[in-house]
Amino acid sequence: MFKKFDYYAPKTLAELFELTNENNEAQILAGGTDLLLKLREKTTPHKMLIDIKKLDNFRGIETKDGYLRMGALTTIREIQASKIIREKYTALYDAAKSFGCLEIRNRATIGGNIVHASPGAEFGTPLFVLAAEAEVIGPDGTRVIPIHEFWQDVYQVDLKDNEVLAAIRLPYYEKMVSRYHRLSRVKGMDLAIVGVSVLALDPANIEKREVKIAMGAVARIPFRNKEVETMLSGVKITNELLVSVKEKLSDSIAPRSSSLRAKPAYKKAMVGNLTEQALLELGLLEEGE
Amino acid sequence: MHKIVESLNYLGGKNMATIPQPSERLDARKKTSGKAKFVADLTFPGMLHAVILRSPHGHALINSIDISEAKKISGIEAIITGKDVADLVINIDIGDQQPIAVDKVRFMGEPVAAVLADDKWKAAEAVDLIKVEYEILPAVTDAREAMKEDSPILHEKQEDYKRHGETNFTAGTNVFSHYKLRKGKLEDIFEKADLVLENSFVYPHRSHTQIEPHGAIAFWTNESEMEMYSSTQSPFFVRTCLADMFAIDPANIIVKAGYLGGGFGGKSDVTIEPLLAAISRFVPGKYVKLTLGREEAFTGSVIARGAAVELKTAVSKEGKILGEKVKIYFNSGAYGSCSLHIVTAAGHNSSGPYEIDNMEVDAYGVYTNNPPVGAFRGYGHPEVHWAKERQINLIAKELGIDPLKVRKINLLKPGSINALGQEIELENGDLAGCVDKVAERLGEIELPAETDNLVYGKGMAAMMKSPVMATNSAASATLRFNESGSVDLAVSGVEMGQGTKTAMRQVAAGGLELPLERIKIKEDISTDNSPYGWQTIGSTTSWKGGMAVLDAVQKAIDQLKANAAAVFDVAVTEVEYADNKLYLSSDPDKILTTEEVCFGYMRGNGYLLGQPVQAYGTYVPPELTHPDPETGQGNCAAEWTFGAQGVVLSINKNTGEITVHNLITALDAGKVINPVLARNQLVGAMVQELGGALTEELVYAEDGKMRNNNFTDFKIPTPEDVAETKMEVYFFETPEPIGPFGARGIAEHGTVGIAAAVGNAISDALNIEIFNLPIYNEKVFMEMTKAGDLVV
Amino acid sequence: MQEINITVNSKEYTLTVPPYMSLLEMLREKLNLTGSKEGCGNGECGACTVLFDGEPVRSCLVLAVEADKSEVTTIEGLSNPDGTNPIQEAFIAEDAVQCGYCTPGFVMAVQALLNRTSEPTDEDIKEALGGHLCRCTGYEAIYRAIKKLVK
Q: How far is A224 from chain C (nearest CA, A)?
């Protein structure tokens, strides 16, 4: 049972901003699979929901001006089904595939997952390594913010009361591979205990190769380890190097000990192993050493 | 040990193999089409909704409750706090609980106030406006901690509580029950033994997580007459409890139970019914509905049992167990009634299926600031088997011999005296056969070659199970012939998915030699007109219910014979019944059909010979006694079921992730009434317990708050977890003399040894020893990356 | 209160609902279609699964007002006129039902799967069932029923 609230479904952007301007505490309703859960709790009174699903502005996956634009209302299922995402932005596809369950994926949206900004959010680490940008729209126009700046803290993103996340933009690179791996307690629907995304630009050209790594559910927000990225970029990735990479990754995180899903020691061990798995699948590990 | 009851004598000459088989479960069609009605689906004109304010704290004094703001919401019919019902006590065995907390809350989720309104949102809004001032008290959430001298005390005046029967409590402490078992003498056995092994094992609290949360609807006609629909496994037991609480005659309370969306013991105890009965009494003439949300079902009903078990085992170098000291600490939560007998059951069964000549068992029921613990499928057996069957493997490891050998040298066999002092007979079942079968299957299963990442393991556990129940725990059946020769049958016992109604219809059809379609069985229970049944628990429903059905069958056949004898004008002893016909033993060609006499036989002039045939059958397990207060022994278990279980699994060495490839059970079921349903019971139980083995554990904060009262963080097995698992079930059939057609209980048995078999398989795979459940991936990984055998 | 127009099991309705009423509550309490069950209210058990514009969703996590101008199919809408449905028949034949509380959700999930493809792979089947919980059967018979349907 939900707590009581009012509901509006604006049909134009003008209507939307009229509502957001007048109701600072209003919540934007997208897929609802995160927000509606909170409406069951006594602790968070909600007075008004503004459903943006009647607006066309936030839908669709399209290639535009050298980047891929996903409307904030793009469902996880649509991401999972997108050929270009599977082939080009594979980490995002991996995240979509392990997100919730089919019924949840049919409703949940990429925008909702990001704005909710949970530490273990499935799409956090893929978007961080893909250097995504958040396209935010408000009464005064559009802002574009790099994802790592947009994603400020636990449950906190850079959105003013009258602004709405409109889309996610992903830069396009000719040569780019990526994977996302996560662990969970059961094999069916479960939240991630820990997740890692690995991306490589120009993967076949060792000298020019650029590697990026982000870890999820290990800190307040998705965490990129730049030192390790430097260690892995432009060099052959040998097993020897991998050993020190794993150590560095492990040392770079201090997950909270109160997590119900896994203790810090396990997460610290797993970020390295998941990274190894992703590197292996991306063909970035030197063989026979 | 057992007496063969008379109802079986009648069936003695029959071919017990021919129990008619239905093509489908009785309720399957309704349940797959959404037509089956559960309590939550019922609604009545003018029905009110109850929403409960529950304690957010594990242990606190209630200083004040302010309902003034809540009262202002329109549509509120009543707001009830503990003070309004302070005279009511829930006394199932121990009168330690009240429907709404009065001065003090003892667990998170304990009711503090209730709001009744014509609309559930209004009620919820009002609940949010009730202000309660608490004074937080230190909490305790572990049984062994709660037994320490400096522990917070939950019940300061245990000695003041009213009780039904004896409970061995210690006033001024948290110990509300102490079951003692003494067999033989331990004396100097530990000094003389070749090996003494001491280990401590933990089986944590779980949640039943029936997919249907608890719900009930109550209607008081006046202040001493009530009707209630409830998601209960025990309508008669609920009636008894409510009658006691309100001091009114049970006949004035009607409790109705239809289909249950899963029970597993969590709806067998009295849970939300006293609360709903107490609050709905303020609005006589109106139906009041209370359905729990999922989070509430975790904290506001009963949670599933768990215990710490300490074993000190003396063993000879051949592996023979010479003696054993057992300590069991049951974390029973805030109130004791619903786990009192689990403590005893665990004590009874702590020997495992082994003959141990010298035993000392001390099982303690201990109050803690957790929700009250209730029955859960397995009822104390999985906890002690987790300890015992792990211990057997650890003994074998110490001695360097095959664990199978240790099991076999110690197994109970005909002539053995079990822990209760009962002599085991051939007809108790083929324990050794089951153990051999599982060992054989484990031997046959070929494992893929190990890789850098994957390692495989096999493990087994032997098991036994006995129901613990009141010595007068009856089951009953009514059987009435219709004028067409068809039969209306009603049997005690609630249908909660176990298929008891399907099976009982088969038993009646087998006994009467009638086609199945001629028997109509009533699927719901109403205490005003259904045959009496104590509780739907302990895997006893089809066993005891089946005996009651056969008792009714025999009585009905006697009546048919009497009617026929009147027609034939002979003594009743000269009439025989077979194949739905009655005939003269001296002249088998002289035949009357059942249809001709089942409503009495009317002559041409209207003169009636005999009477309509309707019979009432009952069954109470014979000669049961309470355990002796000193030795803990006695005839406390009416039947034993023996078996063995096995597990094959693999472990990903990079992550600790476990994949289960085979789950195996061999069980001596006595007689399988319905092979399809029986197998599926065992499979369901194995997977349920796999959850207990791998992921399920209620987690509490220090202040007693439950941290994972939801499916987000209390993880039960999902379809994908067993997508690659081959389920194997093997039934042995050594007829049980006091079972219908020789059948025993089977519903819980698939749970008993699975956790231990998983633990043993992990030991086999990685040579690591795990003592505390659950064995989630993380635990396996952390343990295997450590050196040596450490407690995890 | 808000007015919505909704098609449920091919029948059109105009309903007045509070904004905070879930689609599940609307089906159960307004239309008396109690076949869809609430097992958790959190989207985690699957007992409330219905088809929403043809796709399976958790009706406990959809607002009734969000379903304005939509088409919903519930377990009650699956049966052919003769009261049968191949999925239900397969579940019955394989005894894939025990307490029955999760069953409507599973049946709806399988219907959605078969709407997507008549020849689902093992992976497709696992995906379809991934978020459905059953505490009774151990899932074996449910898998068997589905395999029977696609064979």
A: 30
